[in-house]
Amino acid sequence: MVRGLDDKLFNTFVYIILGLCGLAAVLPILYVVSVSITPFGEVLRNGGFILFPREITFSAYKTLLTESNIPRAFQVTIFITVVGTAVNLVLTALMAYPLSRKNLPGRHLFLLMIVFTLLFSGGIIPTYLIVKSMGLLDSVWAMILPNAVWSFNVLIMKSFFEGLPEELFESARMDGAKEFRILLQIVTPLSVPVLLTVGLFYLVGHWNEFFQAIFYVTDRTLFPLQVVVREILMQSQQPLENAENMMPTQTMQMASVMLASLPVIVIYPFLQKHFTKGMLLGSIKG
Amino acid sequence: MQQSNRVHRTGKRARSWTALLLMTALLAGCAGGNDGSGGAPVNENNTPPQASSTANQKPIKLEIIESGNNLPSPDKDQIKQELDKALNIDLSLTVYPSGDDYSNQLNVRMASGNFPDLFMINRQQLLQFSKQGLLLDLTPYLDQLQQTVDFIGEDSLKKGIVGNNVYAISKSPQVPYNTYFIRKDWLDALGLEVPQTIEELSAVAQAFTTGDPDGNGKPDTLGLTGGKLGAFAPVFGSYGVGMPGNFYEKDGTVVNSLYDPAMREALAFIRDMISTGAVDPELLANSGLQHQEKAIKGQAGIIYIDWPNMTKEQFVEQIQTVNPNAEWIQIEAPEGPAGRYDGAWDIGASPGRYAIPKALEKQPEKLQRVFDLLNYVSDPDGGSMLVQFGVEDVHYTLEGGVPQMTEQSGDVGHSWLYQFTGRPEMDYLQAKFAAQSDYITFAADQPRIEVLDGFIDNPDGFNQADATRYIEEELAKFVYSKRPLDEYDDFLQTLETSMNYSTFVDSAMTQLQELGFGS
What we know:
Oligomer: heterodimer
Shape of chain A: globular
Strand content of chain A: under 5%
Helix content of chain A: over 70%
Strand content of chain B: 5-15%
Structural class of chain B: alpha/beta
Strand order of the largest sheet of chain B: 2-1-3-14-6
Largest sheet of chain B: 5 strands, mixed
Distance between the termini of chain A: 33 Å
Order of helices and strands of chain A: HHHHHHHHHHHHHH
Number of helices of chain A: 14
CATH architecture of the domain at 12-174 and 350-388 in chain B: 3-Layer(aba) Sandwich
Largest sheet of chain A: none
Mean pLDDT of chain B: 83
Low-confidence stretches of chain A: none
Number of strands of chain B: 17
CATH superfamily of the domain at 12-174 and 350-388 in chain B: Periplasmic binding protein-like II
Structural class of chain A: mainly alpha
Distance between the termini of chain B: 101 Å
CATH class of the domain at 12-174 and 350-388 in chain B: Alpha Beta
Low-confidence stretches of chain B: 1-14, 17-55
Number of helices of chain B: 21
């Protein structure tokens, strides 16, 4: 629709700005990818800065996948991501649905309880005590159950459920459906976008699991990916430690970063269309 | 009407049931993990009496946490397996690569009563936890820890004392690693000699910056780099002062470096050197090992750093990859008005302290195993060799009483994580890092300003972190000519009044006098 000179100028301007923003996002990733596949000697010779690799090696990936704790960490992370997201979605939906029904007795009280947890939390130590007394320490469940429901997502889902036409519920009820059947057969199929959006929130959260693992898990075999990757990235400043350790090269560090973020980068485009739709969920009441 | 009303009501009831169900499901979900996961440490007081009856067959699980890195998983951890075998324990060591993560973990566990059986603590934590009664007083048990006490020595034992009681075991002392390293090939290319005085150091740094020592025709080289003001440690030393804030003995009295008149002169020299442009402009921003990277990449010609980070095979290889002709040599501290001192060395600092929770008192069986472990890794004829070098004839061989590392020694590169009581430092380093032997001796033999900071406990009302930050910021202004040195007295005054520094200095002086320094 470019019409006059003004429009052209405006468009050029917009393209330049957007192009710069795009570059700002792409360059760091490109740098990480390039360094991760360049032999470290080559990286050093170029003063540490490489955007387009001239020599390519996958040895860093090979080492990480065969000799480090990464493969095991992958298993742990995949487990908590899959099981965790499933648990999250089931519980969140089960909580959001009743709350979305305006005739739920004590609805305001329940809502208040939920909003309260958004604003206030028990703090690290009391939470730790609960996790401990539940016997969850040092198990994968410590990374799944303490955050099984995120109240913000309950609110998002609740708003979506509220937007479903009341007539649907009435007719279902007239046909003899009880609440569980309505939830399973009427509400769920209509709520795919919100389930995917909220699911993605949870999924990415689980994939990036770090703090709960650091606090609740001491067994090295249960460390999730991010904890292991961080160990590779952390450069110790203690000469004592550096004397003893083999320092991972920058190539190795970047390769570990790629391994950790690649799955999410791959999943994103497929979920994106739902995601953008879902982001607006609850913003319009109708 | 009535009909629909009833439907409505049942609907309402069902929904409140759903909400209730959800709540129960939440709780059940949490409890469900209980049987699934196992390995739940049971509470303090109800120690099952079965521990003593089955002790002889069943290994006792010991949990240890510390900061560290690169611990392999238990199935590949041969040191753990050997210790387990020798002591009939199931040792579970967890290490945290970042100090912050470690303190968080430790604080949470101390606060929640879920104590590890042995854990690393610093001096501040030692004071705090012992005051709170969380640490086991080891004084009555010292007989049982005789082996450990002999191994670490009297001086190290003192570093674990609060009041009159021993609350922690300090590792045996270490030796300094840092010196200046300089590019010999650059010196040769410019026809310069190794700098012997601080003036020459400054001149060489300038020549490295402007003289194109790498001969590539580009002004892409720097003189001096290092980690923050540490790059100037030997310069401070040459003026006879420690690093900013250090306490040391001078002419028979204890002084704080900030009040040492020579400090101003040192700062003035550093300021002049920085203004020549020969110092890494990112000096104060260098974090981690950025300065080392600059040296390896051939960007800087002088660096103040420890020998492992310059002379280990891994780094030598990297240096050679960048420039096969690169040659780094260690140099003596340059001479200044007060002589040659290669920076400061804290004789009161401990390489690491380990404490046992008081709660372990109630489990004598387990406590005994912790003692056994400490004694075992302190036994020169027993476990000490294991945690230093690995398994004999696998990871090392003894030749004439001197350990020689074998090809397999790489599998136990993490053994130092198990050196809870330290190691005989020089023998250890010489054997384990035979290739770096000369560098190790050189660094260890350099004269240093003996600093006493490690002996000082901070008084109440003094925030060390705040004061350190303020000192760092203001000194940065002085050396970068952002604030004239004439205002040095103002700086001290602000430090004393708003940072409570005089309370700290007074308290430190008293403490050091009580220990017999400065008399």
